[in-house]
Amino acid sequence: MVTSPRFDKVLKILNWVAVIAVIVTLGIIFFYAPTERTMGNVQRIFYFHVGSAWVGAVAFFIALFGGVMYLWKSEKKWDTLALASVEIGLVFLTMATVAGSVWGKPAWNTWWLWSPRLTLITIALLTYAAYFMLRGAIEDDDRRARFAAVYVIVAFVTIIMAYISVRILRDIHPVVVGGVAESAQGAEEGLQEFSGLDSAKMGMTLMASTMTFSLLYSAWLMNRIKLQRLSDAVNDLKMQVTARLQGEN
Amino acid sequence: MNNLSNNKKTSEAREFITAVMAVVWKDMRIEQHTRQTVSVMVMFSVVTVIMFNFALESNLDAARNVSTGLLWATILLAGTLGLNRSMALEQENQTMDALLIAPVPRNAIYLGKVISITLFTLALEVILVLLFMVFFNKPMWRPMVLLILVLGTIGYIAAGVIVTSMTIQTRSKEVLLPVLLLPLALPLVLPASMAVAAYMFPQQPVWGEVQSAVYIVIIYDILMLAAGFLTYHFVVES
Amino acid sequence: MNPVLLTAVFQSAADVANQFNGYLMLGYFVMWLIVMAYIVTLVVRQRNLKQDLQLMQQILQEHEEESES
To answer: Which of A151, B14, B225, C7 gives 20 to 30 Å between its CA and that of B156?
Structure first.
């Protein structure tokens, strides 16, 4: 009733495929990928870290697309797409950040660091978390969707600018003294070290991880959309019930 | 035929500018009579600067080092006050409704509000710069610093008007604005702060050192103004 | 080559590779937690909504039966 039988069928298949993909990829990460030279096994975090970060970024792009489409067409499905995508993107981004932090501790001896890239991540997390605060504060359905869409577009400008800043501001001499700058340097170099991959096997593992996260995203997206449709149906019925009960009085 | 359509475009453009100016002028007149917005911002800022000063008293060197960050933080916070006040006034007095009913193009309203609130905030910043120079002994009067302040303020208010117009229509109103706006402002404030900080030393930086930061601020301004220009219509329609 | 030396070389290589395994476990564990936490919220929310849906449908049905009778 809320979702068509075909939708449910695809959803079920996707769920299973995602689970299998995760298990297979974990196998690939731990048994197929070679051990990294300098850091050893802990580098394997890298595969999930990059996979989730990349798909998270894509999720936010899709949310932006949903927002723009909603402003254009005013069809609820676009708002639902944006909402679901932001939520899942936020989960992936959190995963990536935490994984990165745990990897950073052995790599650069610090859990956190205000490098341009990590500052960008923080901004993104705050911005998209605020998206839900905005949604929560509006009662009217259409207005909520409209404002959410405008906010996603404005947030996107922020993210683009933050991303450009990361690229450009590395050239500016940091106005810091001593230890912080050094570990910042190390962090930046560390980030570059691993963008050059040691072997083809690492590249393949990374691709497998990215594909798995894409599948996970798709599965979660369909689940979340179904959830939203359920929620809408319940709200509809609640209004009907209230109307009937008031009609009695 | 070509002349006719050209004339139409010119007159449309002229009407647009007139509308923008009308909004700005209205805000100036209101402010002149009520003095609500700027005075609130100034009071808040003075209290904040004094508070920062007390908090950092034990370590004056640290205070001087973080002064540019504090300057921007104060501008951001005071800015939310100004934005809230200015947009709330529109709502209270129903001047916004009047503007919407009259055939004023929505983005003209947007630009008008951005200009007027930017002017209020810049007035505040004049006082802030003086205060900071007195309390933190940093040479903030340097022309490049002032330029960066102006550019940064424009971008901040450009984002601020969009977001504030949304938040005053919500249940939480004023409370929600900082939560939404401050993260959005970070990619603007961070390079701006770095650039200003570069000028705080006796040895002035070469343009090449700060140009990337300044360019980022300018690009942010342009993109944010464009975003507001294109989407404001969706924010104020009921 | 001297076999004792060889074993020493191999040993230290394995040690280097495994020195941060604690962090490796921690990292994957935390990611796993986040994944499970999200899936749990999805499942719980879905269950609650389905219950609400049933309840609403029930109320409406009872209401219709009442007004018919």
So the answer is: B14
Q: Do the Cβ atoms of B234 and A149 come within 8 Å?
A: yes
Q: Is A244 close to C63, i.e. CB distance below 8 A? A: yes
Report which secondary-structure segment, H or E, holds C35.
Answer: helix C21-68
**CA B71/CA B155 separation, integer angstroms:** 16
SS3 of A100-117: the string is HHHHHHHHHCCCCCCCHH
CB neighbours of A11 closer than 8 A, spacing ≥ 6? A3, A219, A222, A223, A226
Q: Do chains B and C touch (3 or more CB pairs under 8 A)?
A: no
Q: Is the pLDDT of residue A171 over 60?
A: no
Q: Domain locations in chain C? A: 3-68
Which CATH number goes with the domain that contains A188?
A: 1.20.120
Quick: pLDDT tens for C37-58.
999 999 999 999 999 999 988 8
Pick C50's closest partner by Cβ from A95, A220, A230. A230
* Cα separations in angstroms, B184 against A11, A59, A129, B135: 35, 19, 12, 29
Q: List the domain range (segments joined by +) for residue A43.
A: 5-238
